[in-house]
Amino acid sequence: MIIGLTGQSGSGKSFAAKFFEQNGFVIIDFDKLSREVTGAGSPCLSEIEKEFGVGVICENGSLNRRALGEIVFADSQRLATLNSITHKYILKEAEALVKKYKGSNIVFDAPLLFQANLHEKCDYCLSILADEKIKISRIMERDGISEIVAVNRLASQPDDEFFLKKSDKCIYNNADASAFEKELSDVLGNLFKECN
Question: pTM, whole model, 2 decimals?
């Protein structure tokens, strides 16, 4: 079984991924793959530098994520361009991992699950959502960024309606961790019931 796990920044997707991992799922973390394919000296990073300029490269040759983020999260067309560069490299790595873990239950932990058409490879799609104020405060605390940068980041992502239309299930993570975990347990229980 492959579960596609997605949602907005600050919604609690990482917590959900950890929950599935603790329940025996192999997690394919697309943010991690993104960091791997954009490593110093990689073909993907060369393409990014060509498109966005040397300002997005650190002195040590690695990607300056903050500088790149400030460009793409304020301009949806630039974000789309970045995604068109990185997706092909990320998908290649993901396919290799799916082959490696053939026969296991897998979670695609993917912020761009639908935009990258990864949902087509999934048996079930689960989106994690949360109220705007809660997401902004979580992002600011997690990434040490200002409110305006957090707001821009969220503005560059699809709204609730997008996820509600495309997902098999959406969970709002506005309460405490134990309530969220209970909802995730219910989803998992129902999924395994359907499989048996």
Answer: 0.85
